[in-house]
Amino acid sequence: MMEKLGSIFAWGVAGLTALLIIMDFFAGGIPDGLVWFYCFFSLAALMYGVIKSHALVFVMKRSIHTVISLFVIATASFLLLRTLPGGPFDQEKALPPAIKENIEAKYGLNKPLIEQYSDYMLGLLQGDFGQSYKYLGRTVWDILSDSFPVSLKLGIYACLIALLFGIPLGLIAARFHNKAADTASMTLAVSGVSLPSFLTAVVAIQFLSLGFPLNLFAPELVETMKEYEILLPVGLWETPRHYIMPCLILGIRPAAFIARLTRASALDVTQSDFIRTARAKGLSEQKILFKHVLKNSLIPVLTYLGPLVAGIITGSFVIETIYAVPGMGKHFIQSVFNRDYPLIMGLTVLFSFLLIVANLVVDVLYKVVDPRIEMS
Amino acid sequence: MSDTVISPGDTIQENRTPNSLWADSWKRLKKNRGSMVSAAIILVVVLIALLAPVLAPYDFRAQNIDLVLEGPSGAHWFGTDELGRDLLSRTIYGARVSMAIAILTAIISLIIGGVYGAISGWVGGWVDNVLMRFVDILMGVPQLVLMILVKVVFDTMDIFENEELRALTSTTLALSVVGWVTLARLVRGQILQVKQMLYVEAARALGAKPFSALVKHVLPNILGPVIVMLTFQIPSNILFESFLSFIGLGLRPPYSSWGVLASNGFDVIDSYPHLVFFPGLAIFVSMLAFNLLGDGMRDAFDPKMKGR
User: pLDDT class for A374, splitting at 50, 70, 90?
Assistant: First the structure.
């Protein structure tokens, strides 16, 4: 019975994920209710995994740890930002002192540092990230809640693409170790790691939306292709047709990383005793690969997924600039340029939170996948 | 495994000079063709960077208004940019800046991260705890924000008169602030492992002082993974440098680095793709070479790969 519940949860999450993707692509969007249901279902599945692998105490401890870490990171960034030379309202042309004083009073910058800090932290506890200095009249919360869902969607698709391509590529390379297939897939992977995304994005646009090389000798054909929507549009963020390309480009590097990681750990697993036993008792190579090697070699890949997911769902400046995606990545850069302290703080806290949660989820999955692992 | 099986009648060959780890690794690395080609490419790129004034056919700042945005030709192999500057010369000079930043950053990261990680791992106890919590905080903060913050603040401080020198220093500094953390973690982890080895204990038992045990017995044994990590850091530094230039924080024209060139050409990409293509190619090839060399070295240093 317990075993059955576990597989119901596992297949349920996988099936729901597939359903959501299909709906997003072909039904023109996902109803909010379904998204909530998906979140609750996944959370329930995770909780089930936690309880079943006796990791409840571990998770509670880690949750307390999370709160402390967030508090420390918020404090450290707050102090760092306030002690930096130069301020948010220093411009090339100095403001008249009276105006500057008024501005600083508005944002509470004239109060003593301790008071500013306690104000900010108390606000943070109530979910108030403060007012942006640069985007007048907008709170940091508004900015984040506008841009984060976009980056989240882009990032999730990119991660899925990375896993979908990376794991098979690594497995193929390990299965045909030192043969042509290995060399080919690893050449592909090393190239993928070495390509800057602005380059791949530019090349992809040339091929997928401008119809290169057809546009050189048959411009009419390219026009017709555009009419029948064979070529992909660049820019805007509306339908799946708009976001296939950015997701693909964003997924290349992680896919290449995952392929290399999968290959290395699959090779490691292949040399272990239980694989030799499996061979000795006459299992076919295919069966060994899928039943024994795949499962065991995914564990190191999991470790990498925590930081990867956190990094990728918080947006990528290059991709967002090239494809005009209204995501969060640009804020990471512009907020620092603008010295928009509340926005920097908000981004940092959100990022740290996501990173810690992602790592926690990875640790739990670890335990569920491999019960031998001790939780410390 | 099969070569260790001795059947009756075999004469056992005596291995007169016992191979050290380094000699063994070198032998394995030499057999890896990809790594050797990559090492050659890296050497060529470094030479190009060093000999830039000799190799570049034109002055990298010289403008030629009659030849603006030309495609590749016999006189200008890589074409010219929007002010008629020769792209080949600019790419050659760009190698200087890009490689200098990448390698300098790796060295600084090694020094800071190495010392930090060594102290943390070797001393242990509460020192280790405190030092690692600090690293955890740094890892929990978005790296991009940290990098740009350091860069922006340093640029406003006006330490150097020379604009190129200032941009070079601040970029290197910004990348190092992010880069040393991984090295510190690696060095600490390695030292924790090696510290428990019997030969270290033996050295201590024979009366070696802690410091000399660290320098003589521990450090040489963790050098392999550290070198591999450094080799992987250099390409990521090249990438970060080009990224900083892309967002307008690196050097500014007329000075040249691969990132500056690529981001400059980016504005006119639709009509003049060669302006992005050639610097992009330079970035790609050198990153590829470092990554392949790193792969080869990792395999060569891995004791499990012995005899394969």
Answer: low
Cα–Cα distance between B276 and B274 in angstroms, integer?
Answer: 5
Q: Residue B246 and residue A318: Cβ atoms within 8 Å?
A: yes
Look at residue A240 and tell me whether its pLDDT is greater than 70.
yes
Tokens matching residue B24: 């063994």
B239–A196 CB contact, under 8 Å? yes
pTM score over 0.95: no
What is the Cα–Cα distance from A277 to A110, expressed in whole angstroms? 72
In this prediction, the answer to ipTM > 0.90 reads no
Cβ(A119)–Cβ(A108) below 8 Å: yes
The mean pLDDT value for B7-23 works out to 60
Question: Least CA distance to B149: which residue of chain A?
Answer: A336
Of B145, B157, B273, nearest to A85 by CB-CB distance is B157
Q: What is the pLDDT of residues B44-78, one digit of tens each?
A: 999 988 888 887 777 777 777 777 777 777 777 77
For A166-180, b/e burial (b = at least 16 CB within 10 A) is bbebbbbbbbeeeee
Q: How far is B285 from chain A (nearest CA, A)?
A: 8
- Residue A131 DSSP SS3: strand
CA distances from B130 to A65, A340, B121, B125, B207 (A): 15, 31, 12, 9, 29
Query: Residue A201: is its pLDDT beyond 70?
Result: yes
Partnered with residue A139 across adjacent β-strands are A131
- pLDDT over 90, % of chain A: 16
Interface contact B268, partner A, CB < 8 A:
no
Q: What is the mean pLDDT of chain B?
A: 82
Query: What is the mean predicted confidence (pLDDT) over A66-87?
Result: 85
Asked if A85 is an interface residue toward chain B (Cβ–Cβ < 8 A), one would say yes
**pLDDT tens column, B252-302:** 777 788 888 888 888 777 777 778 888 888 999 999 999 999 888 888 887
- CA separation for the pair A145, A346 (Å, rounded): 11
Q: How far is CA A233 from CA A160, A242, A260, A323, B292, in A?
A: 22, 6, 32, 9, 35
Helices (H), chain A: 2-26, 32-52, 56-83, 97-106, 113-125, 140-175, 180-194, 197-208, 214-217, 219-227, 240-270, 273-280, 285-287, 294-313, 317-323, 329-337, 341-369
Put simply, whether A77 touches B (Cβ < 8 Å) is yes
Residue A72: which of B137, B243, B270 has the nearest Cβ? B137
Q: Are B174 and B118 in contact (CB under 8 A)?
A: no
Three-class secondary structure assignment of chain B: CHHHCCCCCCCCCCCCCCCCHHHHHHHHHHHCHHHHHHHHHHHHHHHHHHCHHHHCCCCCCCCCCCCCCCCCCCCCCCCECCCCCEHHHHHHHHHHHHHHHHHHHHHHHHHHHHHHHHHHHHHCHHHHHHHHHHHHHHHHCCHHHHHHHHHHHHHHCCCCCCHHHHHHHHHHHHHHHHHHHHHHHHHHHHHHHHHCCHHHHHHHHCCCCHHHHHHHHHHHHHHHHHHHHHHHHHHHHHHHHHHHHHCCCCCCCCCCCHHHHHHHHHCCCCCCCHHHHHHHHHHHHHHHHHHHHHHHHHHHHCHHHCCC
Cα–Cα distance for residue pair A295/A369, rounded to 1 Å: 8
Q: Do B283 and A356 touch (CB under 8 A)?
A: no
